[in-house]
Each structure stands twice: as C-alpha cells, then as structure tokens.
Design brief:
It is a multi-pass membrane protein. The protein has 2 domains: 215 residues, Growth Hormone, Chain: A (Up-down Bundle), CATH 1.20.1250; 214 residues, MFS general substrate transporter like domains (Growth Hormone, Chain: A, Up-down Bundle), CATH 1.20.1250. Helix 15 packs across helix 19 and helix 16 runs antiparallel to helix 17. It has 24 helices and no strands. With 567 residues, the chain is mainly α.
C-alpha cells in the first residue's frame, strides 16, 4: 500500500494540473491564437489573390486595422472595464469567431463566382464584397483585441492571485504559445492552400473557428467557475457599495426597483435642474461620449506610474529589424532565397523562446525591474551588429542615392517597388519588366553585411521578448483592477501608432540603398525606448530605497538585522 501511495499522488497532481484554471487558460489561448495566426496569414494571401496579385487590398486592410485599433483601443478597453468578465470574454469570443466564419464564407463565394461577379453591375457587386470582407475582418480584429486584453491582461492576473512568480510563469507560457503558433499555424494553412485551393483554405479556416469557438466557450466557463475572484471587479464592487448606501433610504420606504426609487428624488427642487439639463444636453452628451472616453483613457495612461515603461515598449515597434515583410523584402534584394529565410525565421523563434525562459530565471534572481534593465542592455548590444552591418562589405548603403527616388518612380511605373511590395512581388512572380533585382545582384560580392544584420536581429530577440514580458507584468501589477482594460487598450493604440510610423518610414525610403538609414533610425528609436525605461527603473528603485530608508523602516530593518545576533 505504501508503494502505491506515491503513484497515486503523482496521478492526482497531474489530474489537478490538467483540470486547473491555469492549464485551461493555456488550452483556450492556444486554440484562440492558432485560429488568429491562420486567419491573419490567410487573409493577406486571399486579398492579394482576389485583386489580381496586387497589394492594394492588403495595404487598405492593414491601414484600416491599424487605424481602428489606434482610434478605438481606449474605448475597447473601457468597455472591458465596465462589464463583467465572463460577459466580455464570451461576447468577444463570439464576435471574433463569427466574423471570421462569415468572412470565410463570403470569400468562398467570391472565389467560386468571381467571373460572374465581375460582370454584374460593372463589377460593383465584387467591389462591395471586397468592402464587406475588409470591414468584417476589421471587426474580427477589434474583437480579438478585446479578447487579448481580457484574457492576457486581466484573467491571467486574477488566476495567478498575489503570486508574482506564478504570474511571470503564466506570462512566459502564454508568450511561448504565441511564438509556436505564429510559426506552425501559417505552415498548416499554407500547405492546405498549396495542395488544395484558396476555396478549400477558406472552408478549413471557417470550420476551424466554428469548432474552436465551441471549445473555447466551454473552457472559459470552466475557468470562470474554478476562479471565484473572476466574478468580482474592484471598480464595480465599489460602485455597488456606493449605490447601496445612496439607495438605502428609498429602498426601505418604497421597496421598488432602482429606476422607481430614483423618481421621488426628481421631485425635489434641487434635483429638477439636473435632469432637465441632461435632457437638453442628452444628444450631444451621447454623441461625444466616445470622445470623452478616448480622452479619459489617454489621460489615465499618462498619469500611470508605468507610463515611461509603456512608452518604452511602444517605441520598440518603430523598427525595421524584425521578421516581417519589410526585412524579408530586403533579404530578397540581397540574394537570400526562401529556404535560407525560413531557417532564419526558425532561429528567430528559438531565440524568442530562449528570451521567455531567460525572463523567468533572471526575474527570480534580480527582480522584475532589473530584469527589464538587463534585457534592454542585451537587446541594444545585439543591435549594434545591425549598425555595423550598414558599413560592412556587401552593404548597399549609399547616401548619394536619394531615399525618395523609388517613391517617385513608383508613381510613374513599377520600376522599383517599395520594400513592403518587393517580398510579396517576388513570391508572386512580380513584374518581369522590373530591372532592379537583376541590376543589384551582380555587385553583391560579400554576404558579410546581411549576415551581421540577421545575426543581430536574431540575437536581439532574446532581450526583446524578455523586455516585452517585463513591461507586460509591470502593467499587470501596477495598474488598478478597474483600469486594466483601458490602460492596455491605450497601450495597444500606442504600439499600433509606432508600427504605422515605421511603415510610413519605409514607404518614404523604399530603395535598398536607404535601408541602412532605416536601420540606424530603428536602432535610435529602440535606444530612446530603453532610455525611457531606464528613467522609469531609476525612479522606481530610488523611491523604494527612500521608503526603505524612512525612520519607521529603519527601525524595522535594524530589528530584523539584529535578530540573528540576539538569538
């Protein structure tokens, strides 16, 4: 019997883990991000295919998505704060998956009957379908933003409780899931579209989201049941207590509903003017309410003690040193093929996972704030390789060539595409009349520059992801419960704003000769971001030292230090 006890204990511990709220959140997040990554990858390909291998619809979609989150981020966060957690999660889940399913069905119809739609009303029906696809996909992205704020920024904090180490481990696990799905999900849907068709790809994504929605809905409800703290919100609890105190006399006298209880107060002379003024300004008040919510969100974000930490994270989005279409396009101009790029992307993912693992270890050894400092120094040190690559042999960097040359030639013809266009144009076959790649490839005698560039980018991912997790947990721990949604919504808006600026920067200077200048500007913005964090860290650590050096704390410190000697 004694020998069986350890096995039973191990089995029980495994059962408890797989049925815990933490594991259920991991499962739900994995399903959600897998569907998101498949859809985000596929929708860009679908839009390019629909518009005759042009990037116009993809560019419009990216602009609409970024602009919507930029403008509505604070409003979405405020909605998350003002509503019950389960309602927000379920509504966001249903809205997101329903929009993706609807969009997938609409795309299937367009792919199936595109030739007929082109002939109807001079193509206006097809144009309407394009508008509907972009609009519905944008709604799905907004719902996904609300879902991310709810689960990753609020539910995770509540499930972790007051345990900072548990919160750090959960954040790291969630980020590892993000990185793995970011690689595997596009590979799966890409193979389905390659061996099947775009029609089959749309159907697969729609079916996946339908099944995933049902499973995620059940997982969310299980997590909600296993975590009673999710049923209470700090801000709502305070409001309910205040309302109970105010409505107590009227409830005792009339025992009526809240709306009926407020009617006797309206008969008083002091209260008559308020409803009249609100009725006169009711229309304007409701119309301007989103603007006031937006302003209040940004003001609240500015007044946070973690303001500079959040700004530092946003500044890291103003960079071309990432594995996106811009860096991929530049790599193609430097002679790297798809096979090499896929290996580099895999190395980047491994580096990011190492960063998440390093975050948990360094945080335990040095503390959260110092972890951000160490991560920032590590990232900046690795990015120095990118700066060196600008002046290394094989670099096309040439200040004598105007950065705006290709912008003007692109307005006349397609002699030179922007960096955003070059990657997809190369994959899709591009334009056979484009002479730029053929002219640039022969002079490339050394790969030292591009090797240093990608070595710096890949190595910097360790510090980047560790720093991202640091700022994320700082926001989770320092923002009060009633403002988590709106503060994280504004943070998403700031991230999208700097991301938009970096795309605008590339559009203004798209030629490969100017990419070195973009690298230097990117590293400068990263440095400014980390300087903001260093200011936040110095101020936070100094305030903690000041508290520790206060007279009361000195007495406690002396007593605690003298305790071992007296014993």
């Amino acid at each position: 019997m004694d020998n069986c006890a350890p096995k039973k204990t191990c089995a029980e511990s495994l059962r408890d883990f797989f049925t815990s709220a933490k594991f259920l959140i991991y499962m739900g997040h994995a399903l959600s991000t897998w569907g998101d990554r498949m859809w985000n990858f596929a929708v860009a390909v679908f839009l390019v295919e629909l518009y005759g291998n042009s990037l116009l619809l993809t560019a419009v979609y990216g602009l609409v998505v970024a602009g919507s989150v930029l403008l509505l981020g604070a409003i979405i966060g405020d909605w998350v704060d003002k509503n019950p957690r389960l309602k927000v999660a379920q509504t966001s889940l249903l809205a997101q998956n329903s929009c993706v399913i609807l969009c997938g069905i609409l795309l299937m119809l367009v792919f199936q009957f595109k030739e007929q739609l082109v002939e109807l009303y001079n193509g206006w029906i097809l144009t309407t379908c394009y508008i509907l696809v972009i609009s519905i996909a944008n709604i799905a992205n907004l719902a996904s933003t609300a879902m991310a704020i709810t689960i990753q920024r609020d539910w995770v904090v509540v499930v972790a409780g007051q345990d900072s180490s548990k919160l750090a481990d959960m954040n790291a696990t969630v980020r590892i899931i993000d990185q793995l799905t970011n690689i595997l999900a596009p590979m799966l849907v890409g193979q389905i579209m390659a061996f099947g068709s775009h029609f089959v790809g749309c159907g697969f994504i729609s079916g996946w989201n339908l099944c995933s929605m049902c499973v995620e809905y059940a997982l969310l409800y299980k997590v909600y049941q296993k975590t009673p703290a999710l049923a209470m919100k700090g801000g709502q609890k305070e409001q309910q207590q205040e309302l109970k105190q105010l409505s107590l006399p009227t409830d005792v006298e009339n025992s009526q509903s809240p709306e009926e209880c407020s009617q006797p107060l309206m008969n008083e002379t002091s209260a008559v003017a308020k409803p009249d003024s609100s009725e006169e300004q009711g229309c304007c008040y409701q119309v301007t309410e989103p603007l006031r919510t937006l302003k209040a969100g940004w003001v609240a974000y500015y007044n946070q003690n973690i303001f500079f930490a959040g700004m530092s994270l946003a500044f890291l989005y103003m960079t071309v040193l990432g594995f996106d279409c811009i860096t991929t396009g530049y790599a193609y101009t430097q002679g790297l093929n798809g096979s090499v790029l896929s290996l580099l992307m895999g190395a980047s993912a491994i580096s990011g996972i190492c960063g998440t693992v390093a975050f948990t270890w360094v945080r335990k050894k040095c503390g959260l704030i110092r972890t951000g400092f160490i991560s920032g120094v590590a990232q900046l040190s690795c990015l120095m390789l990118c700066v060196i690559s600008v002046f290394a042999p094989g670099s096309p960097f040439d200040l004598s060539v105007s950065p705006f040359k290709d912008l003007y030639t692109h307005l006349i013809g397609e002699k030179s595409l922007p960096e955003v266009d070059q990657s997809l144009a190369t994959i899709l076959g591009g334009n056979s009349t484009t002479p730029a790649p053929a002219e640039e490839m022969p002079p490339l005698q050394s790969y030292m520059s591009v090797a240093l560039l990608f070595s710096g980018v890949i190595a910097a991912r360790v510090g980047l992801w560790s720093f991202d997790l640091t700022v994320t947990q700082l926001i989770q721990e320092n923002v009060i419960e009633s403002e988590r949604g709106v503060i994280n919504g504004v943070q998403n808006s700031m991230n999208y704003l700097l991301d938009l600026l970096h795309f605008i920067m590339v559009i203004l200077a798209p030629n490969p000769e100017a990419f070195g200048l973009l690298v230097i500007i990117s590293v400068s913005f990263v440095a400014m971001g980390h300087m903001m964090y260093f200011r936040f860290a110095f101020k936070s650590l100094r305030s903690r030292l000041f508290l520790c050096c206060s007279p009361e704390q000195k007495v406690e410190t002396v007593d605690s230090l003298s305790l071992p000697t007296t014993v």
